[in-house]
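hi! just following up on the protien thing from before. the input was this:
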Amino acid sequence: MERFYPIGTPGVPWTDAEKQQWRAAQIRHRSYGDEVVSQIEELKNEFDVSTYGELDYGPDQRYQLFAIRSRHWDDSLPVMLVTGGVHGYETSGVQGALQFVREHGPAYHGHANLLVAPCVSPWGYERILRWNALALDPNRNFVPNSPAPESAALLKLVKPYKGRIVMHIDLHETTDSDESEFRPALAARDGKPFEPGEIPDGFYLVDDTANPQPAFQQAIIESVAKVTHIAPADANNEIIGSPVIAPGVIEYALKELGLCAGISDARYTTTTEVYPDSPRATPEQCNAAQVAAVTAAIEFALANP
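and the predicted 3d structure came back as:
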């Protein structure tokens, strides 16, 4: 029996009324201030912290967006960009980015300039959602004149560094809720039928179709495999509908799809995908997998300028 999303009419795209109905149904489950901003504040002793924008979704829904930069920035050094929380519900992307800065960031002083945006979508983080408050997916809206304020703010942050960013790693998760909630919601919003898919069990990477870097991806996979398991291909030799080009690696057209990993023009780019719902992985392992991915990415980029 075909499932219908509880908002809207099957086959009819949402209007503003349905989007407002969807937004009104969302509940705040956790605190951006307590879980994210507090950790960022603690990093101020060793890193420069600044705001690069503010989201205004109502009187009690205003959020400052924070960037963490290497102290004593040196323009002669390569820039390494780390982004997390583009989808607010992907917890290890946010917590993994912060854990990396806390545990490993100081080691790169004098070797690389770090630029880290650990939680791009704080409204979504608090509500454990993929979309922002406008029912838009920030990770399909990294485009000129973006309608998603989260995406527009990050594009503005990164713009002055384009041409100097050597590596950009964007930290994500693929969860069971993609299939139970977010893909059905997307189909309903766009007035399309929901087509069931398969959630891969394990970690994988998304390379750039226009600029594939197989050795870079492989270095990250090898590092993460020491922490958690790598997602196998399905019966069609695919992961989430895309051909597996190497163990744990698929490709997307990053810029064409408006994805975050396509914003920097870096030589080395990737999107991580952790699977937090696996019975074989703990939240701590998921965070550690993100940290392993970031460190491996930076080390490879430094060794292969």
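The first strand starts at residue 47 and ends at 56.
The beta strands are 47-56, 62-70, 79-84, 113-117, 165-173, 204-208, 238-239, 242-243, 249-252, 268-274.
cheers
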